[in-house]
Amino acid sequence: MKVYGDTNSGNCLKVKWVCDQLALPYTWIAVDTLKGETRTAEFLKLNGAGQVPTIELDDGRTLAQSNAIIRYLARGSHLIPSDAFAAAKMDEWLFWEQYSHEPYIAVCRFQMFYLKKSASDLDPDKVKRGYAALARMEHQLALTPFLVGNTVTLADISLLGYTRVAHEGGFHLDGYAAVRRWISEIEKFLALPPAR
Protein backbone atom coordinates (compact mmCIF):
# COMPACT_ATOMS: atom_id res chain seq x y z
CA MET A 1 0.00 0.00 0.00
CA LYS A 2 1.14 3.54 -0.75
CA VAL A 3 0.25 6.42 1.53
CA TYR A 4 0.51 9.85 -0.06
CA GLY A 5 0.83 12.50 2.60
CA ASP A 6 2.53 15.41 4.33
CA THR A 7 4.00 14.74 7.79
CA ASN A 8 3.10 18.27 8.89
CA SER A 9 -0.59 17.49 8.36
CA GLY A 10 -2.62 16.05 11.22
CA ASN A 11 -4.97 14.48 8.68
CA CYS A 12 -2.07 12.64 7.08
CA LEU A 13 -0.41 11.71 10.36
CA LYS A 14 -3.52 9.98 11.67
CA VAL A 15 -3.28 7.57 8.70
CA LYS A 16 0.41 6.94 9.44
CA TRP A 17 -0.31 6.39 13.14
CA VAL A 18 -3.06 3.85 12.43
CA CYS A 19 -0.80 1.98 10.00
CA ASP A 20 2.01 1.94 12.57
CA GLN A 21 -0.29 0.95 15.47
CA LEU A 22 -1.71 -1.97 13.48
CA ALA A 23 1.66 -2.90 11.89
CA LEU A 24 0.24 -2.48 8.38
CA PRO A 25 2.94 -2.43 5.70
CA TYR A 26 3.01 0.74 3.64
CA THR A 27 5.25 3.03 1.64
CA TRP A 28 5.04 6.70 2.61
CA ILE A 29 5.16 9.03 -0.40
CA ALA A 30 5.80 12.62 0.66
CA VAL A 31 3.62 15.19 -1.07
CA ASP A 32 4.25 18.92 -0.70
CA THR A 33 0.90 20.67 -0.97
CA LEU A 34 2.45 24.14 -0.86
CA LYS A 35 4.43 23.33 -4.01
CA GLY A 36 1.25 22.26 -5.80
CA GLU A 37 2.13 18.57 -5.85
CA THR A 38 -1.52 17.60 -5.26
CA ARG A 39 -2.51 19.52 -8.41
CA THR A 40 -0.39 17.59 -10.90
CA ALA A 41 -2.16 15.50 -13.52
CA GLU A 42 -0.54 12.38 -12.05
CA PHE A 43 -1.81 13.05 -8.54
CA LEU A 44 -5.28 14.09 -9.72
CA LYS A 45 -5.63 10.63 -11.30
CA LEU A 46 -5.26 9.20 -7.77
CA ASN A 47 -7.54 11.73 -6.09
CA GLY A 48 -9.64 14.04 -8.21
CA ALA A 49 -10.12 16.38 -5.23
CA GLY A 50 -6.36 17.00 -5.16
CA GLN A 51 -5.96 16.36 -1.43
CA VAL A 52 -3.81 14.38 0.93
CA PRO A 53 -3.94 11.92 2.52
CA THR A 54 -4.68 9.44 -0.23
CA ILE A 55 -3.91 5.74 -0.15
CA GLU A 56 -3.36 3.47 -3.11
CA LEU A 57 -3.98 -0.21 -2.43
CA ASP A 58 -1.94 -3.00 -4.01
CA ASP A 59 -4.71 -3.62 -6.55
CA GLY A 60 -4.63 0.04 -7.66
CA ARG A 61 -7.81 1.20 -5.93
CA THR A 62 -7.51 4.53 -4.13
CA LEU A 63 -9.21 6.02 -1.10
CA ALA A 64 -9.20 9.59 0.21
CA GLN A 65 -10.46 11.51 3.25
CA SER A 66 -8.49 10.77 6.40
CA ASN A 67 -11.29 9.43 8.56
CA ALA A 68 -12.63 7.20 5.78
CA ILE A 69 -9.09 5.86 5.31
CA ILE A 70 -8.50 5.07 8.97
CA ARG A 71 -11.99 3.56 9.29
CA TYR A 72 -11.12 1.24 6.38
CA LEU A 73 -7.63 0.37 7.61
CA ALA A 74 -8.74 -0.39 11.18
CA ARG A 75 -11.74 -2.57 10.33
CA GLY A 76 -11.85 -5.59 12.64
CA SER A 77 -9.16 -4.18 14.94
CA HIS A 78 -9.07 -3.10 18.59
CA LEU A 79 -9.33 0.53 17.44
CA ILE A 80 -13.02 0.17 16.50
CA PRO A 81 -15.40 -0.87 19.29
CA SER A 82 -17.19 -4.18 18.76
CA ASP A 83 -20.32 -2.74 20.41
CA ALA A 84 -22.45 -1.13 17.70
CA PHE A 85 -23.45 1.89 19.79
CA ALA A 86 -19.88 2.56 20.93
CA ALA A 87 -18.73 2.29 17.30
CA ALA A 88 -21.41 4.82 16.35
CA LYS A 89 -20.21 7.15 19.13
CA MET A 90 -16.71 6.83 17.66
CA ASP A 91 -18.10 7.79 14.25
CA GLU A 92 -19.90 10.72 15.87
CA TRP A 93 -16.52 12.06 17.02
CA LEU A 94 -14.97 11.39 13.59
CA PHE A 95 -17.66 13.42 11.83
CA TRP A 96 -17.47 16.14 14.49
CA GLU A 97 -13.69 16.35 14.09
CA GLN A 98 -13.96 17.26 10.42
CA TYR A 99 -16.87 19.66 10.86
CA SER A 100 -16.36 21.36 14.24
CA HIS A 101 -12.67 20.97 15.12
CA GLU A 102 -10.43 20.76 12.06
CA PRO A 103 -11.94 23.80 10.24
CA TYR A 104 -10.94 26.01 13.15
CA ILE A 105 -7.92 24.60 14.95
CA ALA A 106 -6.23 23.21 11.84
CA VAL A 107 -7.00 26.29 9.74
CA CYS A 108 -5.57 28.65 12.38
CA ARG A 109 -2.51 26.40 12.62
CA PHE A 110 -2.13 26.40 8.83
CA GLN A 111 -2.19 30.18 8.75
CA MET A 112 0.41 30.52 11.50
CA PHE A 113 2.59 27.45 10.80
CA TYR A 114 2.63 27.50 7.00
CA LEU A 115 1.70 31.06 6.07
CA LYS A 116 3.60 32.63 9.03
CA LYS A 117 0.71 34.88 10.06
CA SER A 118 0.61 36.23 13.58
CA ALA A 119 -2.09 35.25 16.09
CA SER A 120 -3.53 38.77 15.81
CA ASP A 121 -4.17 38.16 12.07
CA LEU A 122 -6.40 35.14 12.70
CA ASP A 123 -10.15 35.28 12.13
CA PRO A 124 -11.64 35.85 15.63
CA ASP A 125 -14.61 33.62 14.81
CA LYS A 126 -12.32 30.71 13.92
CA VAL A 127 -10.42 31.22 17.18
CA LYS A 128 -13.70 31.30 19.16
CA ARG A 129 -14.93 28.12 17.49
CA GLY A 130 -11.58 26.43 18.02
CA TYR A 131 -11.81 27.10 21.76
CA ALA A 132 -15.41 25.83 21.71
CA ALA A 133 -14.12 22.56 20.20
CA LEU A 134 -11.46 22.27 22.90
CA ALA A 135 -14.11 22.95 25.56
CA ARG A 136 -16.28 20.12 24.22
CA MET A 137 -13.34 17.74 24.34
CA GLU A 138 -12.43 18.92 27.84
CA HIS A 139 -15.98 18.24 29.03
CA GLN A 140 -15.97 14.68 27.64
CA LEU A 141 -12.44 13.87 28.80
CA ALA A 142 -13.24 15.03 32.32
CA LEU A 143 -15.93 12.31 32.35
CA THR A 144 -14.14 9.46 30.56
CA PRO A 145 -10.45 8.61 30.03
CA PHE A 146 -10.87 8.55 26.25
CA LEU A 147 -13.42 10.03 23.89
CA VAL A 148 -15.54 6.88 23.70
CA GLY A 149 -15.13 5.62 27.24
CA ASN A 150 -12.36 3.50 28.70
CA THR A 151 -10.45 2.39 25.62
CA VAL A 152 -8.59 4.14 22.81
CA THR A 153 -10.48 4.25 19.51
CA LEU A 154 -10.00 5.87 16.13
CA ALA A 155 -11.75 8.93 17.58
CA ASP A 156 -8.77 9.56 19.86
CA ILE A 157 -6.23 9.07 17.09
CA SER A 158 -8.19 11.31 14.74
CA LEU A 159 -8.59 14.14 17.26
CA LEU A 160 -4.97 13.91 18.39
CA GLY A 161 -3.71 15.02 14.98
CA TYR A 162 -4.46 18.72 15.37
CA THR A 163 -5.18 18.95 19.09
CA ARG A 164 -1.59 18.11 20.06
CA VAL A 165 -0.32 21.00 17.90
CA ALA A 166 -3.15 23.45 18.66
CA HIS A 167 -0.56 25.78 20.21
CA GLU A 168 0.96 26.20 16.75
CA GLY A 169 -2.36 27.81 15.77
CA GLY A 170 -2.34 30.18 18.73
CA PHE A 171 -4.51 28.05 21.03
CA HIS A 172 -3.45 27.83 24.67
CA LEU A 173 -4.23 24.58 26.49
CA ASP A 174 -3.49 25.88 30.00
CA GLY A 175 -7.14 25.68 31.08
CA TYR A 176 -7.71 22.23 29.55
CA ALA A 177 -6.23 19.78 32.04
CA ALA A 178 -8.21 16.78 30.81
CA VAL A 179 -7.24 17.47 27.21
CA ARG A 180 -3.56 17.76 28.16
CA ARG A 181 -3.73 14.46 30.10
CA TRP A 182 -5.42 12.79 27.14
CA ILE A 183 -2.83 14.11 24.65
CA SER A 184 -0.04 12.64 26.78
CA GLU A 185 -1.80 9.27 27.07
CA ILE A 186 -2.55 8.97 23.37
CA GLU A 187 1.01 9.99 22.47
CA LYS A 188 2.27 7.21 24.76
CA PHE A 189 -0.23 4.73 23.28
CA LEU A 190 1.08 5.54 19.80
CA ALA A 191 4.73 5.67 20.98
CA LEU A 192 5.04 9.27 19.81
CA PRO A 193 7.40 11.83 21.29
CA PRO A 194 5.57 14.76 22.89
CA ALA A 195 4.55 17.45 20.41
CA ARG A 196 7.11 20.23 20.17
Automatic annotation (TrEMBL):
Pinpoint the GST C-terminal domain residues: 83-196
Entry-linked PROSITE patterns = GST_CTER, GST_NTER
Q: Which GO terms describe its molecular function?
A: transferase activity
SUPFAM superfamilies listed in its UniProt record: GST C-terminal domain-like, Thioredoxin-like
Boundaries of every GST N-terminal domain copy: 1-81
Quote the Pfam families the UniProt record gives: GST_C, GST_N_2
Keywords from UniProt, A to Z, are: Transferase
What PANTHER family does this protein map onto? GLUTATHIONE S-TRANSFERASE-RELATED (PTHR44051), HYPOTHETICAL GLUTATHIONE S-TRANSFERASE LIKE PROTEIN (PTHR44051:SF2)
Q: What is this protein called?
A: Glutathione S-transferase family protein
Recorded source organism is Bradyrhizobium australiense
What taxonomic classification does the UniProt entry list for its organism? Bacteria, Pseudomonadati, Pseudomonadota, Alphaproteobacteria, Hyphomicrobiales
